[in-house]
């Protein structure tokens, strides 16, 4: 039995003291504000009353702590290397949410602790409508949980796979929305570094929200990038770059067929058509800027590179540096000047898939060397391809795809985890998870032996430092609860 | 709701030999007491915040202490068995008998784990009762709320007392004495601030309380 209570204990006291400190600050702010305004006695009393009521409401919310038993699990909607995502309902408030559950030990073994802490930090500080909202974060002995707003329309990857290519007029809105989401993240001081279509979710009106901020700070998955760099160093001179091509036969037909379909039909088809894709545990280098692979410094520009790659994929149906394996993709990115090519179609039925000059120009402003690359939304707003776009009202514009949803709990845009066919793509992820679980058990056993030995010999260590799993302390302060009154 | 069983000054009968007698007061030793965390802040942390409703403040703290005691006791359950602790006690001089007016109309002499189990379930049922601990906005506390809280605190204290008197060695072996001391000091400061427990009830740990409070003044 895991009897270590240090992290819960510290968590409680840190939480308590920070609550008291913030409460004190709110009080001082109110007092200062009340002094500044010239209020009548009645107005003064009313403001004071309102403040006290708010504080009492907060205190009552603190009393009812978030625990996983307060959620009713409805169905699984996601599977990652270190945990699952469920559609869940918080029983007392009736809020629907995507509940992401991650094993602490697993995160530790995979060197992903920083990843999840960064994600939580961004989620708790963001107020952007372009980012998925965090409702609660909490933990127990085994797991950390993030309860996030449930965004129903699935991810951009699923939509892209279903639609093949986007018309330029449709792509413009998605592109602008991605740029806004990235800009909001940059405004917070974070760089994403690993943007891909999978990171964007489609809401019930068809608009995008950025999710999965994990890589944003950079400490994490450093090992993954290091592995890619090492691989690249080995092969960059011996392996030839390869142009990605649309597999002509099948794909041009696909392009054509898709284009002929009516929107409505398309939507319904892609719901249950059974789109398969492989979920990789390594991730891809498809959208990654060369300076990340080159160990040079990097800045906000790397995310604009990724935007360029995604825009290319919107319009061409494949990503500009895609290859059979990650190694070849890295080589292609390394030699991006040679590999990046504007696809040209000359057969009659495919002419309409040729890119406009404006679109191609924008792609080359993004997939460009650092000196010439766009790095701000302002630059995008000036670009001819996006001319006339109403940037201030993107979310109220009609989207080209609106999910067809029966209820707020409809999960048909996500894989069905009870269907073996849908699970085929998760083979690698599940295999990897099983391996880590085995390692987890070994690690737990070793920790117990170590702890017993430590107890026998190290009574005199400072008590707070004596803990069975010191890494668990990393999660101190993880807990978060949204306040309806505070957030927009 | 009266509760019997605090039979103080009762001569020691043939209880289990106090093999832990040397450890019994170890918690008084300076080196252990000094490991207590955050002592300066705790005294401030118990004050009723300016403008706050007293009941709301008592309620949130009741839940917090209940959770802490649950957590602390949970770590020593393997040591607190009916065999090791056939009676709920706080040292040789104090014995507690369970009575809840439902299953135990008369005070019953039960083992410590059974007693603690009844006690914690009893507290939990009050905390879950919307009429006593309202969780929804707008629901009000009952008029006798402070009496309920006092009852809960009086009983929760007994779990601390049992842990200190009987299981302190186990707590030390788990490296949790700083947690226990901090939690208990916080508890006592809160109790004193709002006068929640009759000093007579605190007698089993009177020495420790005196020492912790003296420390907290510094």
TrEMBL record, chain A:
Q: Which domain of life is it from?
A: Eukaryota
Q: Give the main EC class.
A: transferase
Keyword Nucleotide-binding found? yes
Which Gene Ontology terms describe the biological processes this protein takes part in?
Answer: intracellular signal transduction
State whether keyword RNA-binding applies. Answer: no
Q: Name one GO molecular function term.
A: ATP binding
Q: Which Pfam families match?
A: Pkinase, Pkinase_C
* Alphabetic keyword roster: ATP-binding, Kinase, Nucleotide-binding, Phosphoprotein, Serine/threonine-protein kinase, Transferase
Q: Where is the Protein kinase domain?
A: 71-386
Which SUPFAM superfamilies would you find in this protein's record?
Protein kinase-like (PK-like)
What residue ranges carry the coiled-coil annotation?
none
Residues annotated to bind ATP: 100
Its GO CC terms are: spindle pole body
Q: Which family does it belong to?
A: Belongs to the protein kinase superfamily.
Q: What is this protein called?
A: non-specific serine/threonine protein kinase
Which organism is this protein's natural source? Lobosporangium transversale
| Origin organism lineage | Eukaryota, Fungi, Fungi incertae sedis, Mucoromycota, Mortierellomycotina
UniProtKB/TrEMBL annotation, chain B:
**One Pfam family it belongs to:** Mob1_phocein
Source organism, top-level taxon: Eukaryota
Which Gene3D superfamilies does UniProt cross-reference here? MOB kinase activator
* Binding-site residues, Zn(2+): 80, 85, 162, 167
Q: Would the keyword Oxidoreductase be found if you checked this record's keyword annotation?
A: no
State if Isomerase is listed as a keyword: no
Annotated region (Disordered), positions in chain: 1-20
The membrane-spanning stretches of this chain are: none
Biased-composition ranges for Polar residues? 1-11
Leader peptide range in chain numbering = none
Alphabetical UniProt keywords: Metal-binding, Zinc
- The name on file for this protein is Mps1 binder-like protein
């Amino acid at each position: 039995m895991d009897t270590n209570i240090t992290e819960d204990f510290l968590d409680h006291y840190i939480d308590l003291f920070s609550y008291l400190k913030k409460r004190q600050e709110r009080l001082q702010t109110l007092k200062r504000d009340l002094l500044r305004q010239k209020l009548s006695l009645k107005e003064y009393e009313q403001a004071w009353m309102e403040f006290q009521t708010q504080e009492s409401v907060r205190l009552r919310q603190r009393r009812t702590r978030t625990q996983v038993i307060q959620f009713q699990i409805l169905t699984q909607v996601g599977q990652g290397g270190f945990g699952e995502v469920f559609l869940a309902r918080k029983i007392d408030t009736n809020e629907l949410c995507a509940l992401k559950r991650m094993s602490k030990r697993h995160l530790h073994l995979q060197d992903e602790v920083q990843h999840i802490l960064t994600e939580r930090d961004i989620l708790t500080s963001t107020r952007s409508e372009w980012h998925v909202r965090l409702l609660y974060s909490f933990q127990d002995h085994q797991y950390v949980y993030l309860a996030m707003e449930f965004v129903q329309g699935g991810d951009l990857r699923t939509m892209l796979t279903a639609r093949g290519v986007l018309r330029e007029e449709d792509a413009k809105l998605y592109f602008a929305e991605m740029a806004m989401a990235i800009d909001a993240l940059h405004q917070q001081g974070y760089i994403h570094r690993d943007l891909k279509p999978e990171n964007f979710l489609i809401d019930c009106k068809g608009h995008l929200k950025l999710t999965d901020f994990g890589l944003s700070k950079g400490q994490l998955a450093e090992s993954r990038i290091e592995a890619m760099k090492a691989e690249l160093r080995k092969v960059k001179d011996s392996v030839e770059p390869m142009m990605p091509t649309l597999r002509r036969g099948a794909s041009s037909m696909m392009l054509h067929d898709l284009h002929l379909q009516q929107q409505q039909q398309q939507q319904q088809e892609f719901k249950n058509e059974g789109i398969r894709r492989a979920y990789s545990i390594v991730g891809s280098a498809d959208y990654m800027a060369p300076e990340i692979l080159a160990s040079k410094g990097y800045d906000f520009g790397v995310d604009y590179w990724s935007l360029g790659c995604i825009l290319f994929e919107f319009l061409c149906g494949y990503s500009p540096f895609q290859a059979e394996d990650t190694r070849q993709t890295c080589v292609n990115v390394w030699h991006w000047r040679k590999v990046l090519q504007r696809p040209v179609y000359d057969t009659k039925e495919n002419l309409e898939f040729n890119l406009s000059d404006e679109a191609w120009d924008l792609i080359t402003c993004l997939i460009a060397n650092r000196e010439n690359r766009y790095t701000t939304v302002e630059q995008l707003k000036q670009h001819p391809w996006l001319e006339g776009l109403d940037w201030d009202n993107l979310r109220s514009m009609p989207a080209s795809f609106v999910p067809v949803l029966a209820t707020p709990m409809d999960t048909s845009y996500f894989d069905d985890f009870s269907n073996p066919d849908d699970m085929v793509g998760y083979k690698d992820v599940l295999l990897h998870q099983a391996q880590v679980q085995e390692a987890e058990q070994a690690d737990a056993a070793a920790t117990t032996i170590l702890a017993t030995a430590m107890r026998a010999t190290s009574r005199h260590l400072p008590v707070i430092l004596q803990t069975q799993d010191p890494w668990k302390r990393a999660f101190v302060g993880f807990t978060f609860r949204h306040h309806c009154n505070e957030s927009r | 709701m009266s509760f019997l069983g605090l039979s103080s000054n009762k001569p020691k009968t043939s209880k289990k030999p106090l093999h832990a007698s040397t450890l019994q007061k170890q918690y008084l030793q300076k080196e252990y007491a000094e490991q207590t965390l955050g002592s300066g802040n705790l005294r401030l942390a118990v004050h009723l915040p300016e403008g706050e409703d007293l009941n709301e403040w008592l309620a949130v703290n009741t839940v917090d202490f209940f959770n802490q005691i649950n957590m602390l006791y949970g770590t020593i359950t393997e040591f607190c068995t009916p065999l090791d602790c056939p009676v709920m006690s706080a040292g040789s001089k104090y014995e507690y008998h369970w009575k809840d007016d439902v299953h135990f109309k008369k005070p019953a002499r039960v083992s410590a784990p059974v007693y603690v189990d009844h006690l914690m379930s009893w507290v939990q049922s009050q905390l879950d009762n919307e009429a006593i601990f309202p969780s929804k906005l707008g629901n009000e506390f009952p008029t006798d709320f402070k009496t309920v809280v006092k009852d809960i605190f009086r009983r929760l204290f007994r779990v601390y007392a049992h842990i200190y008197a009987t299981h302190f060695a186990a707590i030390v072996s788990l490296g949790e004495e700083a947690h226990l001391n901090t939690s208990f000091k916080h508890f006592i400061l809160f109790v004193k601030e709002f006068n929640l427990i009759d000093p007579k009830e605190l007698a089993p740990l009177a020495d420790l309380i005196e020492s912790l409070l003296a420390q907290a003044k510094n």
